[in-house]
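Notes to self after the call with IL:
- keep both proteins in one doc
- input above output, always
- annotate only the second one for now

Protein 1:
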Amino acid sequence: MIRFSDKQWDVLINNYRKWWKGELGRPILPLIISGADPGRPMPKAPSHHFSNCADFSLSVEEIIDRMDFDLSSLEFYGDSFPLVRMAHFGPGVMAAFLGARLEPAEDTVWFYPPKKVPIEDLHFSYDESNIYFNRIKDIYRAGMKKWGGNVCMAMIDIGGGMDVLASMLGTEELLIEVLDNPKEVKRLCLEITEIWLKYYWELNDIIKGQRVFSDWSSRPNEKPSYILQCDFCYMISTKMFNEFVYDDLSKTSSALDKAFYHLDGKGALPHLDTLLSIDTIKGIQWVPGSGEGESKNWDDIIEKISKAGKKVWPAYKIDPNLDKIIKVVKKPDDLYIAPRYYSMNEKKEGLKLLEKYGAMPS
């Protein structure tokens, strides 16, 4: 049995409303404890993952039953809630919807161009019969039948427009085309934006009865939202970003409620000013990367995002420095902290963290 009551849903939603208004008085702090007794035997079906996302021998009912079992072994505290991330079809799965070859791996899914076509002859179109698209729809339908909206099934990782295009052309080829055929790249980016929105809203139509909406980032929202991205931007100038990516971000974020942006790596920082200028992007997730990126002080970036009136999600290890980071932002409500996972043996330690910042329920 999944441990999350109607009262907990009401408190969660009310807390997020206050947070967006700047009235909660603290950061968002989700805490999940693993190792609870699920109350029933483990199903035979494995947990749905990158490596088996293309295994169609499992029925969608078996997949949902295993998800239900896994959720039943968790306890939710602070600002956490029952969530199925639905990211295991891979980052940028829209490429598979458009015909790219999907290749599962242990910790991700890779996408490869279907065949080489001159860019001027390349056109994208919405394919309602795509096997992966329909598989995802069937999983959503089975989840809604099972949970009736009391578990949040997140939006799949559709991908960023330029990242999808890189999967369809190949990254090196796209780097050549932005220089040799910028008009054709722009045309394809616009095509992808329109199709992206069509896929998004068709999938959302199935899960619209949920208590909240989310995406691969695990961030909940009362209305359909998304965390947008462009990992390809690491390799292009700010001028190119404004030419090929800005319109896509502006249009998709305008169609959504309280969109975030996934800013990944030091090489993406030159585009931060552009991102902060888009009013319909309401928050930035800053991911500096591993190694030096995690150990370096990024207070200036966090402060800049907060001063621009955006929510900020520092996506790196900040627990020892949370008090200091709270002082950097305009107000504690500007901070979103990613879900913290603790084992049952570490539960007291986790609850002390919530108590320290006022995130324990009254």
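Protein 2 (the one to annotate):
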Amino acid sequence: MTVASQAVAHKSVTRPSGLLALSGLGLLASVDILWQLGSSSFFIDEISSMKLAASPLSQLLTKLKVAENSPAGYFAILHFWTKLTGSNTEWVARLPSAIAGIALVFAVYRLGVLVADARVGLLAGLLAAVSPLVLQYAEQARPYAIAMLAVTIGAIGALEATRQNSWAWLIVGCVAFSAALSMHYASLAVAVPFCVWMLWQRATPFRMRLVFCGVIALAWLAWLPLLIAQHNDHPGEQLGQYGTLTAGHLVRVVAAPFDDRYTLHPGILKAIAAAVVGIAIAGVARYAWRAKRDELLLMSAVFVLSIVGLLGAAAAGVDILNSRYMTFVLPFTAILLATGIANAPRTLSIAAVSILLVTAVIFDLGSHRREHFYPDVRGAVDAIAVAWRPGDAVQQYSSFGVNFPLLWYAGTRLRGVQIIAAGSAAAQRSLVGHARVWIVREEPRLPGTGAGTPPGYHTIAVRKFASAPSVSVELASANRSR
């Protein structure tokens, strides 16, 4: 981009129509993300976040070695946030991620303006604002939304630093990328290409380039011992069936900005979106190569290398082929898509935008439907709490996705609770002495069938909860109490 074109692009930012459109994108993202922010129970990984946040900082690193596959940055933030607010309710715990998800729209817009113009910035910001993947992680007490924002700010800092030879912007880039690496190790997939690109910027003083790469390298090395310890403790910790090498998972990874939290199979709509993404980015990469637009080439490389890395890992038996690990690339994917659409013939642009926006809206609305939220374990425990009596027990009879949150909610809301795992002789012996047992199930059954009720107990009532997967609560009484 020439100096003159940069001036035109920056001038367009200040136009009232541009500011109004940007404000509208911020409002759209805010409504999408904040709506129902606290309406669902914590999911599996969020429980891990909450437990770590409740730990003293002096114990955080020790617990991280066995509890997570991420650095400590996010959990330290959540620790201070919950202490500051004095609350561990769902919407409060998720609010930092929500704020990051909303701010991401403005950061993507700013980055789009830097590499292209205000039109590309606005379109990229729109794609980020309606992205189901952004929605998913902006509504989770997890590090991904903050990491997305951090890598975007890091990219802005790096580009501005090279254009202006500015130490202030260089520091912004260094700090932001270091923060991203403290949120998640996979941020390295963005940080490394930017470091390589920075080293090739001959017009930028060598000292600035060295400092940029050196600071990021030190940030990575600082977390490397923890990463090694976590790998040694649980070397096989992967996504299993959710990250294997399949065509469906590849589709979801390529179409990551339009992936959602509730569909099990990608379907034709995501396949079409993946095709649009692939064609658009291939076209932009080809144009960038011919026109020597190295900033667009850099973003294309980040996207392609991330896909290749995930495919290679999956082919080697490491089950991480999942859109979760494309969150860090999402801001650049949005900008590449916007660039390709903005420079395509009008008919193709309209068709591409229509496909992507329809896909995003359909899966956004689906994500907001109650039955597509996480299992309502909180509702199940609240229902138990209403009729809870001293001496009652809770028996787990469901999936890991329900059991892990159950331990958290029951432990914090039921006084003197004893939680007993179902399915063993030891569990049956643990029930002795409990007149009543509350059984939390993943698959509800009809009252009175007796299926799965512990021997020596009979069913009093069953309550079903509308969520995905469904949760039911059964109250069973010991036969001797008849």
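Annotation: Residues 3-372 form one domain. The beta strands are 393-397, 419-421, 436-441, 457-465, 471-478.
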